[in-house]
C-alpha cells in the first residue's frame, strides 16, 4: 500500500471513530420543546383562573431517561402558604388547591381547633423512579404529576407532621386520616404512612390511576 493511500485510509478511520464517539454522547441538560398548551391544558388553566389561583406557565422540557415537564405551571398563590411548589401539571394543581381549601382548612378547625397557615411539601417534579420499588418504572414526579405533603403548620404554632402525627394524639390521627380519605376522592393515587416505609413521613398524591382497571389507588 502506497504512503498516500495509507494516509487516506487512516483519515477515513479517524472520521468514523469520531462519529462513533459523538453518537454515544447524551445531552445532560433539559431540551426545550414546543410550549403551546394543549386544549385540555387551556381548559384546566381557565378553571384555575376562575377559582382565583394565581400561577405562571412554564416552558415545556424533556430530559434524558424519559422525564418531562409538559403543560406545567408554577402555583404562586391560592390563599394558603405552601412550600416547595415546583412544576405541576394543571390537573394536579387544580386538585391540590381544592384539597387544601376544602379538606385541609375545615379539617384543621374541626379536629385541631385552629387554622392551617402553611402546608409543607417535599416538592413536585423530580426525575426519578418510584420510591421503594424494584421495577425501575418512573415516578409520576418525573412528569411533574405528583406532590408529596409532609406537614401542616397551624396559626397557634403547632406543626402536625406525617412522621409524628400519623400515630400521634387522637386529634392528630383523626385530622390526618380525614385528609387521607378526602385525598382519595380527588387524586388518582394516594399513598400514606401505612403503605410502606418509603412513605412514612409524607402523603404522596398524583393524578395517575391504576393501570389495571383505571380506578384510583388509595393506600
From TrEMBL:
The keyword Signal applies. Residues 1-19 form the signal peptide. Residues 43-219 form the Extensin-like C-terminal domain. InterPro entries: Extensin-like_C. The keyword Signal applies. This is Extensin family protein. Keywords: Signal.
Amino acid at each position: 500500500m502506497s504512503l498516500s493511500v495509507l494516509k487516506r485510509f487512516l483519515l477515513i478511520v479517524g472520521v468514523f471513530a469520531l462519529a462513533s464517539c459523538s453518537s454515544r454522547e447524551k445531552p445532560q441538560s433539559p431540551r426545550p420543546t414546543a410550549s403551546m398548551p394543549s386544549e385540555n391544558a387551556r381548559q384546566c388553566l381557565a378553571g384555575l383562573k376562575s377559582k382565583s389561583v394565581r400561577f405562571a406557565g412554564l416552558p415545556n422540557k424533556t430530559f434524558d431517561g424519559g422525564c418531562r415537564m409538559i403543560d406545567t405551571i408554577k402555583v404562586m398563590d391560592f390563599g394558603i402558604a405552601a412550600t416547595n411548589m415546583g412544576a405541576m401539571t394543571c390537573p394536579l394543581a387544580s386538585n391540590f388547591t381544592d384539597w387544601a381549601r376544602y379538606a385541609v382548612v375545615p379539617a384543621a378547625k374541626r379536629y385541631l381547633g385552629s387554622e392551617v397557615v402553611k402546608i409543607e411539601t417535599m416538592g413536585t417534579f423530580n426525575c426519578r423512579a418510584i420510591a421503594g420499588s424494584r421495577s425501575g418504572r418512573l415516578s409520576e414526579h418525573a412528569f411533574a404529576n405528583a406532590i408529596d405533603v409532609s406537614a401542616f403548620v397551624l396559626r397557634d404554632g403547632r406543626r402536625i407532621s406525617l412522621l409524628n402525627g400519623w400515630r400521634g394524639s387522637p386529634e392528630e390521627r383523626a385530622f390526618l386520616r380525614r385528609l387521607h380519605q378526602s385525598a382519595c376522592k380527588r387524586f388518582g393515587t394516594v399513598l400514606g404512612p401505612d403503605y410502606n416505609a418509603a412513605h412514612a413521613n409524607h402523603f404522596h398524591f398524583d393524578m395517575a390511576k391504576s393501570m389495571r382497571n383505571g380506578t384510583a389507588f388509595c393506600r
